[in-house]
Amino acid sequence: MDQYEAELKSALKEGEIVRWKGSVAPYRLFDADNKKSTGIIWLISIGIAAVLSILYTVYVLTAQGATFQPFVYFLTIGFPFLGFIDPVRDQKHIAGQLLAVTNQRVMIFHKSTPNENKSIGLGFGQIDKARIEEIESGINRLRLGSATFKSKGLKLRRDAMLGGKDDDDRVIGLVFYQLKGKDCADICMILKENSVAIEKG
Q1: Does pTM top 0.70 for this prediction?
Q2: CA 87, CA 40: separation in Å to the nearest integer?
Q3: Of 12, 79, 156, 198, which has the most beta carbons under 10 Å away?
Q4: What does the DSSP assignment read for the chain?
């Protein structure tokens, strides 16, 4: 996480102090929490690739004057493949995040946030409530802001990467995707000290 230390330092406001920082607990594409969404995306991607390839094959075999073009299969298989690698890309992206909690707000740093300091954050006063979810023994998810409470699968991972947003594209919720138990407890203590209501999901 050394790559983010400069970004974290430059993002701090006057009088702001880092009280906790850490990383996301590793997760597997087919763990109990992710296997359904990963499986659905992969099946859809394979299905689209198969249907497009079959349609093209039928067209070549039945259309008068049609000639076989092998490169077309790179398109019929290639475009759906982008969806196939989506869960893998999300996993790598989330694994590379730096999470931080200061005396004023919570923040997520990563490479592709479209802000100059590569961070998204919410002040404690902007978090209407937080929710802890136990993913497995010793691993928790922390949803910061009720706007993220209903997110699942792909949408949940997007909230973890880009923040939950309102209709005006403003970030109104964050997700610390997976945390070790002690890290989650330390963060929740800071949130409670700053009057953020926390519930268990």
Answers
A1: yes
A2: 11
A3: 156
A4: -GGGHHHHHHHPPTT--EEEEE-PPP--TTSTTTHHHHHHHHHHHHHHHHHHHHHHHHHHHHSTT----THHHHHHHHHHHHHHTHHHHHHHHHHT-EEEEESSEEEEE-TT-SSTTSEEEEEGGG-S-EEEEEEETTEEEEEESGGGTT--HHHHHHHHHH-EE-TTS-EEEEEEEEEEHHHHHHHHHHHHHTT--EEE-
Place of tokens 């019929």: 76
- CATH fold of 2-24+98-200 reads PH-domain like (2.30.29)
Q: How far apart are CA 108 and CA 201, in angstroms?
A: 22
Distance CA 141, CA 178 (A): 5
